Amino acid sequence: MEAATGPLKPDRFVGIFYFLWHNNRGGQSPHWNGPYDISRILAKDPGALSNPDSPYWGPIGAYHYWGEPLYGYYLSTDPWVLRRHAQLLADAGIDTLIFDTTNALTYREVYLELCQVFAAIRAEGGRTPQLSFMVNTKAGETAEQLFREFYEPGLHPDLWFRWQGKPLLLCDPEQASPRLREFFTLRRAHWPFTMVNTPYAWHWEAAYPQPYGYTDAPEVPEQVNVSVAQNLRRSDGKVTNMSSGEARGRSFHDGRFDAAPGAVNHGYNFEEQWQRAFELDPPFVMVTGWNEWIAGRWGQPDGPLVFVDQFDQECSRDIEPVKGNHGDNYYWQLIANVRRFNGAPALPVASRPTTIDLALGFDQWAGVQPDYLDHQGETAVRNYDGAAGLHYLNRTGRHDLLLARVARDQDRV
Length: 413
Known about the structure:
Blueprint: H1 2-5, E1 13-18, H2 38-44, E2 63-65, H3 79-91, E3 96-101, H4 108-123, E4 130-135, H5 139-151, E5 162-163, E6 166-170, H6 178-183, E7 185-190, E8 198-199, E9 201-203, E10 212-214, E11 221-227, E12 230-233, E13 247-248, E14 252-253, E15 256-257, H7 268-280, E16 284-288, E17 294-296, H8 329-342, E18 372-373, E19 382-385, E20 391-394, E21 403-404
Parallel strand pairs: 1-3, 1-16, 3-4, 4-6, 6-7, 7-9, 8-10, 11-16
Antiparallel strand pairs: 2-17, 5-6, 10-11, 12-13, 14-15, 18-21, 19-20
Helix pairs in contact: 3-4, 7-8
């Protein structure tokens, strides 16, 4: 692994856009058990895309999923799901979650539950990413609320992601109070209306080849974004809707949409964006994103359907595994590219051949290496509400295996 990626680079960091907004216990579709799901709607009514009056669509403003997450239509406070997110993202090498609080909502109940789960994992000896926030609408007020309710009381300081010695907050410094400018390292969140390199501003989405954020030296990148897909027009990179038919979906690369069968499964757009990150080699990469999943239905009742940020498998940008479709392809692609960016430790050397007598005790395993480690708590019961009136119950966990070793001799493994 080290030969392919180079050794670990201590000055490289990766954050991922993370969404706290799956807290809608209502919004159930009258046509099936669960929420409005565009993949289900188009399966039931292939002509629904051109028919805003199809009975399968939810009303104007209703949230629609583009597909079903692997763990179901979960609520963001589900501790079973939060534990798995922590495990998956820590294993992928993600240093920090970047919470989307750009719409002047902080989701305090959700992020505190996440912190409780992450703290429990760390107390057990496990690993989790740290966390930070991104604000935009009413940026100063939202930042003050986050400071007052989370940072000022000193809640979970070991989970604060720090940049240049202070907690990182993506907030326009001009809208921040003096005490916030003193407490945080601030970077403005740059929206993709202009594709330019930006001083003291970080990008959360951009067209390839992506511009970057910098500090004092315009020629030295500090941060670049890598996104799975973009609600940017194929022709000129201008902002559009994911449902427009012109967005740069998962299959977009080399300046065009790839219509080859199965192209959506291969992550061509995501890979192209990563190549730009490798070329720039900044200390920080922000990945968009992990678990957005939903978008509101907008537009006039008798007009075209409008879904701005998510729409279908092609025009969506989540990495979290999905049921069916591309499965966990994008998660493994994330792992591979984070390792290429960060480097990787050398693989441990296997110990010499050892004959194990199953009738004897465990002491004979003392010198067998390497250790294969797994996460603690994977057999916990899941018993929690989901979105749109659903409930998830899983009692199938049995043996929580934490460590395995493999011995070999000339006859047996």
